[in-house]
Amino acid sequence: MKKLLLLLTFLTTVFSFAQDAIILSQENANEKGISPIWPKCEKSRQSPSQCFDQKLRTHIIQKFEYPDEALDEGLSGTVTIEFIINKKGKVEVLEVTGGHRYLQLAAIKIIRAIPKMKPGLWGEKPIAIAYTVPITFRKPQ
Q: Which family does it belong to (predicted)?
């Protein structure tokens, strides 16, 4: 009986900790309709995920700056940046790949400038949603 009680206690603890670390991908969040809500998307006629995607594209275009160092060295390339909108609605950069370091830093700056928003919800609980975005830097002609 003690072994059974110990096993149940262990399993309950494992499951309660596991639920705190749930991170859904953008695709899964969109399927389940639990995307984070970008500021001013509550009043949009689009779905929250469509509005989020549109606002993210617009944000990247508006915040895009080609780094001077990259221009001087003639650097170009695509930087892929993985980030989450955490349970508090804030951006956290997880991984950055591709491109030169100068381009990576510029991409991080763009993503970190994403405004705080309402987090995605799993039932009544806030949940982190992961996104992967490629940002292409082409040398101006």
A: Belongs to the TonB family.
- Give 57-72 as a 3 state SS string: HHHHHHHCCCCHHHHH
Q: For residue 106, give the CATH number of its domain.
A: 3.30.1150
* Euclidean distance between CA atoms 58 and 88, whole angstroms: 22
In a domain, 45, yes or no: yes
61 lies in a domain? yes
- CB-CB contact of 119 with 130 (8 Å): no
Ranges under pLDDT 70 in the chain: 1-33
Contacts of 3 (CB under 8 A, 6+ apart): none
- Residues 20, 94: Cα–Cα separation, whole Å: 17
